[in-house]
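queue> pop job 88
queue> type: inverse folding (structure -> sequence)
queue> payload:
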């Protein structure tokens, strides 16, 4: 974030973008200091400021926005993570402390008084939290460490449980693309019951992380339609005929399929009207309880009673923060707007990438999660594709290369990111080798980016990454080529998802992108060229934080609905168009064909080895 609004005609590259896995304050400290000198809390009139909190994989972040969706300031605080093979765990206590630090820091840096914050919303990864009747953490770890009560979204310990659940062929699975991922909650719950029986008996509430955050802030146990529908098999469309979105009261949970829970061996979660997994649900942005509790307000440095909106998963908050960030045309009718939004797909690009598209009618797409009713935008059906490792994969590829330490030192000496330096190296190589265009540098290097399985559209958690074209070269230039080929492989994966969705009823022709990777101009340009449609970046870089703040604005009744708030607080920034050079399209079409063949070859290899070991 440069502090200056980007006009639609601004084609200046987004240089100085951060590394994709980290979380960043979008204002430099000097800009914040400059802003702080222009006004003081005591002298400035009270504003209507909305606070968004986002808990990602590596940090908790807080962002403050005005009613037009303009970022006033933000801050982040790291959170602890434990990794042991397929097990990835965190601490809800540690996360809450990080949130409190980030909120206080953001308010201080942005010069916002606690009494100016009129609404609060939470977003978080779809991680699983376990607490007892007192709200204290219950361990979900082999270690027995009581702090480790969160199974992180990327944890793959429950692959075998997911396979067993999918073999049941329950009707609820058709609303998850035909099968559950081990990243969803039922397989993880089954794993805990089968492996940590003492913990299982102690848990009083199982919650998605963003629901736990809103519960911790308000004491209200109402769950979000976003989390329950997308990650718990809750059938949100059970409410279609029973409630109008404008009547946003919490609703008795009538969308649980009790037969499903009984069939997979988790029938005890049905007890007490589903008390452990959610007795009531609400649309995102619904005001919870009596707002922020006095205890939570003191910890956060805010005022008690501030409205807190029902939460969203972080990627879905990104969707809310960017879905309406399109250039404003002269006099389009509102009727057209309702249909136009269905032609867009949002890429929320960070550690992983989520692909969000909505429709007025439900579309069943094999291998793609959904259709989820009202899980992101009320009264629309959500289709959710995804890639489990994108920013994480680029970090892995770069950091594990022998040239990485020297490259990192060179980048640090220039005060730029490793990825900006790699992009510069590629530009130089293109000129030196007289390549017709930058992408052509990888004609001999091909990457299947399934290092953490394939989430969509193949839905194969056992899929592995593949690289074709290695040599004995270990130079920085070779690393740059591998990096570019990996970026392209990720983009081919997105093209596969878009084509698959369009073949099953969608009509996606515009991409909107946000998240850390969206700040990398090479990443975005390769996606535009490979998918073949324009990519719109939002005015504000911090779309997930904006989406979370929109929940607070809706809870505070600043807007009558989430849809209205999105239109008011979203705004377009730079638009990146695909190359008009037909040679670029021909090149990517050829590489895409190889990309698709790599997975077919892997299946063949898997079969050959299975027969050999039979």
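queue> result:
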């Amino acid at each position: 974030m440069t502090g200056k609004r980007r006009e639609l005609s601004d084609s200046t590259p987004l240089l100085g973008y951060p590394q994709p896995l980290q979380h960043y304050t979008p204002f430099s400290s000097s800009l914040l200091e400059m802003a702080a000198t222009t006004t003081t809390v005591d002298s400035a009139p009270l504003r209507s400021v909305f606070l968004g909190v986002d808990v990602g994989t590596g940090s908790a972040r807080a962002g403050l926005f005005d009613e037009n969706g303009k970022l006033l300031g933000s801050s982040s605080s790291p959170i602890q993570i434990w990794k042991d093979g397929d097990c990835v765990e965190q601490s809800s206590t540690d996360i809450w402390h990080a949130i409190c630090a980030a909120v206080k820091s953001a308010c201080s840096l942005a010069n916002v008084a606690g009494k100016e914050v009129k609404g609060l919303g939470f977003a978080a990864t779809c991680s699983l939290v376990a607490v007892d009747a007192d709200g204290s953490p219950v361990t979900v770890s082999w270690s027995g460490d009581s702090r480790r009560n969160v199974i992180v979204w990327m944890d793959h310990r429950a692959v075998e449980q997911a396979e067993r659940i999918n073999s049941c062929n329950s009707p609820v699975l058709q609303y998850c693309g035909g099968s559950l991922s081990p990243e969803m909650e039922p397989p993880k719950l089954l794993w805990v019951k089968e492996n940590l029986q003492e913990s299982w008996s102690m848990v009083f509430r199982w919650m998605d992380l963003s629901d736990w955050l809103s519960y911790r802030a308000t004491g209200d146990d109402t769950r979000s339609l976003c989390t329950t529908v997308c990650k718990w098999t809750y059938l949100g469309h059970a409410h279609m005929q029973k409630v109008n979105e404008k009547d946003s009261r919490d609703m008795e949970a009538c969308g649980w399929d009790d037969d499903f829970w009984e069939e997979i061996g988790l029938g005890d979660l049905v007890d007490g009207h589903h008390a452990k997994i959610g007795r009531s649900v609400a649309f995102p942005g619904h005001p919870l309880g009596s707002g922020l509790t006095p205890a939570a307000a003191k910890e956060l440095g805010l005022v008690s009673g501030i409205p807190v909106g029902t939460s969203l998963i972080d990627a879905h908050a990104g969707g809310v923060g960017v879905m309406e960030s399109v250039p404003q045309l002269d006099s389009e009718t509102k009727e057209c707007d309702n249909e136009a939004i269905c032609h867009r797909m949002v890429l929320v690009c960070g550690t992983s990438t989520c692909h969000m598209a909505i429709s007025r009618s439900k579309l069943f797409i094999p291998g793609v999660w959904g259709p989820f009713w009202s899980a992101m935008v009320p009264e629309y059906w959500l289709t959710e594709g995804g890639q489990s490792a994108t920013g994480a994969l680029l970090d892995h590829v770069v950091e594990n290369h022998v040239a990485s330490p020297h490259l990192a030192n060179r980048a640090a000496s220039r005060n730029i990111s490793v990825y900006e330096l790699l992009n510069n190296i590629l530009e130089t190589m293109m000129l030196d080798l007289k390549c017709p265009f930058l992408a052509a540098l990888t004609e001999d290097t091909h990457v299947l980016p399934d290092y953490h399985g394939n989430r969509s559209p193949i839905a194969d958690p056992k899929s592995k990454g593949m690289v074709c074209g290695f040599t004995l070269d270990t130079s920085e230039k070779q690393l740059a080529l591998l990096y570019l080929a990996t970026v392209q492989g990720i983009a081919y994966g997105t093209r596969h998802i878009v084509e698959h969705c369009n073949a099953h009823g969608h009509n996606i022709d515009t991409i909107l992108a946000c998240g850390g990777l969206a700040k990398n101009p090479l990443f975005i340009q390769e996606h535009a060229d490979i998918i073949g449609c324009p990519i719109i970046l939002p005015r504000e870089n911090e779309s997930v934080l904006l989406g979370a703040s929109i929940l607070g604005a809706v809870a505070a009744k600043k807007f009558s609905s989430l849809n209205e708030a999105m239109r008011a607080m979203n705004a377009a920034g730079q638009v990146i168009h695909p190359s008009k050079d037909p040679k670029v399209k021909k090149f990517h079409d050829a590489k895409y064909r190889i990309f698709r063949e790599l997975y077919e070859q892997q299946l063949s290899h898997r079969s050959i080895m299975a027969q050999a070991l039979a």
